[in-house]
Design goal:
The protein has 180 residues and is mainly beta. It has one helix and 14 strands, in the order αββββββββββββββ. The relative contact order is 0.23.
């Protein structure tokens, strides 16, 4: 009688399951880990501007170049270099030690405009030197040293037209340092 009752209960249980639409379920669980890395913010401070110093224009076009690594100034064409007062731009960047950062400048071609005038000269072929290393084109990736602090010097080439109008010329650019 016990086996028949058990069979009857099993048949009734299966019939109830079919009637209710419920199917037998099986559950399993697993753990997962979640992670994130919080970094300190990057920072950049300008120490000095990019200055090409005094030049004398020529009757032919030329260039003035500031070397990002050495700060040396050279010229080509009809440009004569005079005096001092030239220097590469210098920035101090900071972030988490050992991380990779990307240094870039915008715009990549900078227009210098004569103060109280409309005449222009173009600055291009921008270069960066990190910590005194050889200059390189931009944008460029660097690993910050363990201290997290790095000096970046910026140089470039100023294009001077033949018979360029005399005066002071100024322009601006933005240096950006991003984590990679």
């Amino acid at each position: 009688m016990g086996a028949r009752l058990f069979r009857l209960v099993a048949v009734l249980g299966a019939a109830c399951a079919l009637v209710s639409g419920a199917a037998p379920t099986f559950a399993a669980t697993r753990n997962a880990t979640t992670r994130t890395l919080v970094r300190q913010t990057t920072g950049i401070i300008k120490s000095r501007d990019l200055a090409f110093g005094n030049i004398i224009r020529g009757t032919t076009a030329g260039t003035v170049t500031i070397n990002a690594q050495t700060g040396a100034r050279t010229s080509t064409g009809g440009v004569l270099l005079i005096g001092t007062g030239f220097t590469s731009a210098s920035f101090t960047g900071s972030g988490a030690g050992g991380v990779r950062v990307r240094i870039s400048i915008a715009p990549t071609t900078i227009q210098l405009t004569r103060v109280s005038g409309t005449e222009r000269m173009t600055l291009n072929t921008l270069r960066v030197s990190a910590g005194g290393a050889a200059q390189q084109t931009m944008p460029r990736n660097f690993n910050l040293p363990a201290s997290g602090v790095q000096t970046f010097n910026i140089g470039g080439r100023l294009n001077v037209a033949a018979n360029q109008v005399a005066g002071n010329y100024v322009g601006t650019f933005t240096l950006t340092m991003n984590y990679q």
